[in-house]
Every structure is written in structure tokens, then in C-alpha cells.
Amino acid sequence: MNSEVRRWIEKDGVEFFKEIGVKKSWTILDFGCREGHYTIPVAKRVGKNGKVYALDKDSGVLDKLKATVRQYNIKNIEFINEDTKIPLNDNTVDLILCYDVIHYEDKRHRRAIYMEVYRVLKEKGFFSVYPKHYKNDYPSDELADVELEDIIKEIVESGFSLEHKLSKGLLHDDNLNQGYILNFRRC
Ligand SMILES: C[S@@+](CC[C@H](N)C(=O)[O-])C[C@H]1O[C@@H](n2cnc3c(N)ncnc32)[C@H](O)[C@@H]1O
Q1: CATH of domain 3-186
Q2: 113 Cα nearest atom in ligand 1
Q3: For burial by CB atoms within 10 Å, which of 22, 136, 145, 150 has the most?
């Protein structure tokens, strides 16, 4: 872990979640968590009365995250090894993070993710998306030709309203960069 990542997960990431409105004691799902660059700071932010589910289809990255969670002695994270399906009950989660994930998925699979997110979120719960690799931000994979406004539109069409579009300094892989955080509310 480089010093930028360490600083992010220990301090700056916790502040980031405070700034975007994450509250103590919330239940969070980090969809596509990989090694936990967002899982760990959000777990610190919600505190011991909150809970974070860390979901990824890749069991190898979850093993790495488990080691880091042990190292930091964090007790409020549960791990889920699933592809797209979210094995949680309906209306149970306050906030779902989907950061740097949707470029992996074609439109049909993105829609399947949004439907699962909708089902699991509490009424008026939040869906926070960090879209990366769309047309104007290092384009690649399934979002290479997709505009930010089209990403917003497809999520709105899945039953969400856009609350905030925030330009933030945040971690991408192992480096800080500038990106948009889209915060939606389940309608
Ligand atoms: C680029 S990483 C981003 C990790 C983390 N959210 C971050 O921003 O640091 C994307 C992760 O999403 C996972 N992923 C992609 N599509 C998924 C799906 N449909 N279901 C579960 N995990 C998925 C990948 O395995 C990968 O670990």
C-alpha cells in the first residue's frame, strides 16, 4: 500500500464520506469493493454501531481486503462473494456505493445491478456512483462511448432521482484524481 492510499483509507477517505453526507450508524453496501479503498474509510465513518457489507465477484480481492481489515482491527465489515446478485433483504440498506465498477458491464447488466440496488435500499436510501472510464474520463470498456449525462439518465430511468453531482478529489486505483460523484435517491 503506498502512502497516498494509506492516508486515504486512514483519514482523507473518512473525511470524504463525511462531506458527502454519510451518517454514523448507517448500513452500507460497497458493491464492487475490490481491496477496500472505500470500504475501510466508510466503515470508520459509520462507526461501531454501523455496518458495511463488502461485495465483490472476485474472491481473491476479498481475501486481500480481509487481511487489511484484520490489520486495522475493524469489526463492522461483512464480506460477500457474489456477481451482481445482492444476498440481502429488501429495504435494508441506507447507502450503496458503486465506485469505478459500471464500466465493466454492458447496458443490460448495468440495469440488473440498478434493479438489485433498488430492491435492497431502504425507501429514500442513497445510491452513490463514481463513474470512471466514460467518454470524458479515461474512456474504456463498456462506457468508452457513453457520456456522463447518459449514465445519469439510465440510473434515473431505473427509479432514482439525482440529488447531487459533486466534483471531488478521490482515489482511483492507487492514485488521487478528480472525478464526479453522483448521489441518487431511491424514489
Ligand atoms: C476497478 S475495481 C473498483 C474497486 C473499488 N470500488 C474502488 O473504487 O477502489 C471494480 C471491482 O468491481 C468488481 N465487480 C465488477 N462487476 C461486478 C459485479 N457485477 N458484481 C460484483 N463485483 C463486480 C470487480 O471484481 C472489481 O474488484
Answers
A1: 3.40.50.150
A2: 19
A3: 22
